[in-house]
Amino acid sequence: MSEFSELPGTTDVLIVGGGPAGALLGCLLARRGIDVVVVEKQQDLERSFRGENIAPRSVHTLRELGFGPALDAHGYLSIDSVTAIERGRRLLRLEYGKFPLATLPIDIPQPALIGIFLAAAQAHPSFHLAMGTAFTGLTEHDGAVTGATLRGPGGAATSIRARVVIGADGRFSKVRQRSGLAADITPMARDFLSFKLPRPAGWGDDGYLMIEDDRHLVVLPTWPDFLRIGHNLPKRQLGELRAAGLPAFKAGIASLDPRLADLVEEHITSWEDTSFLEIFTAEMREWARDGLLLIGDASHTCTPILGQGVNLAIQDAVCLAPVLAGALSRGGDRPLPAATFDGYVAMRRRHKTTVTRYQRFQEGALAEKHPVKLFIRRVRFATLNQLPLKYRLLDRVVNAAHPIDPVDIAAGAPALVPSVRSGQR
Ligand SMILES: Cc1cc2nc3c(=O)[nH]c(=O)nc-3n(C[C@H](O)[C@H](O)[C@H](O)COP(=O)(O)OP(=O)(O)OC[C@H]3O[C@@H](n4cnc5c(N)ncnc54)[C@H](O)[C@@H]3O)c2cc1C
């Protein structure tokens, strides 16, 4: 890790945000010998209730990239299946081993996942990480982004020049705000409250969607021995929920999933044990400007349905690394033109659109309360459950494919490109 005062004044790639997208991209670029600086505003990697479930496609990708041994060494939980149950009646069951990819999703805390990426990156001398360092603004020249201004621990200010600034700073991206690129923010009809409970012995490695009219719970086994539970609530009604009191909240959970009644009674002792998430999507016509690109949640915030946010972030980093390496290997010291990223953006937009389209459809179905629509939903779920093709149909959403560059698969065999700082170009 670099001290703030030791940060280079110039780099090839400045990544703002050390979440899954920024940390993995930094690692993949450093493997290729590219000079890269990652700045993360938090002092540590701790974060509660964030993307702990990694979709099968990304589990597969991370193993291809050589992260399997580090994941195994930390430990994780494999999830076998997810079952939708309405008022005690099983509607739909998906077993992940039966999808064409035949890889199980895993649950691992986000700090551990990011720590694995950063530890691997720090083996490479061209990688610089500054924790406790916040992006404050962009520097520009002739309409192109040339770098960023930063604030370090204790409030010290500095700036870094870069051929490209990558905004990987999440759903409330400041880089996005400062870039002037317009984001279409669409609030979903409902928000989410999350909490964790100890996982009872014998629960197994299965996830559940527990439905009752327009209310539902997502119940996921979580590493090492928890259940992670998401409860939908009407938009901006956290205040009303709290006003009705904790006992009413607990009774609502217990009616959706009676198996949780004793656990919530014992372990949810105050609202502090829960975490609120405002659900919205952010969609952008442009993800890039000359000298700047947004990735991960900064470019395409999605909803928690099917746990796809980390998957999209990982696939963004994997698809972008070879594009950046190719562009930087051509030399020069000018900001990378926005057109560099046209192919990348088109490819990633297809994946993101498939995911958000399905999420909207699913959220719409789960928010129904008219008896006729509830009947249609029930029939739809049950029909899908009977279809032998259900795994192929949903595979496009759960396991969207992407090309992997062989250089990234051969961990530790990077293709070196000239570095701005070493003055090789
Ligand atoms: C409650 C909750 C549950 C979720 N569950 C799942 C799940 O199970 N599976 C899943 O796939 N997805 C889940 N998601 C979504 C998932 O967490 C995100 O999609 C994913 O983390 C996006 O990765 P990212 O790297 O783009 O952004 P983030 O993970 O948000 O990382 C952005 C980073 O940028 C840093 N940053 C922000 N501003 C600045 C600044 N000015 N300067 C420097 N650094 C800055 C932040 O501190 C953060 O570390 C969940 C999200 C939430 C909120």
From TrEMBL:
InterPro entries: FAD-bd, FAD/NAD-bd_sf, PheA/TfdB_FAD_monoxygenase. It comes from the Bacteria. Residues 11-356 form the FAD-binding domain. The keyword Lipid biosynthesis does not apply. GO terms for molecular function: FAD binding; monooxygenase activity. Keywords: Monooxygenase, Oxidoreductase. This is FAD-dependent monooxygenase. It comes from Dactylosporangium aurantiacum. The lineage of its organism: Bacteria, Bacillati, Actinomycetota, Actinomycetes, Micromonosporales.
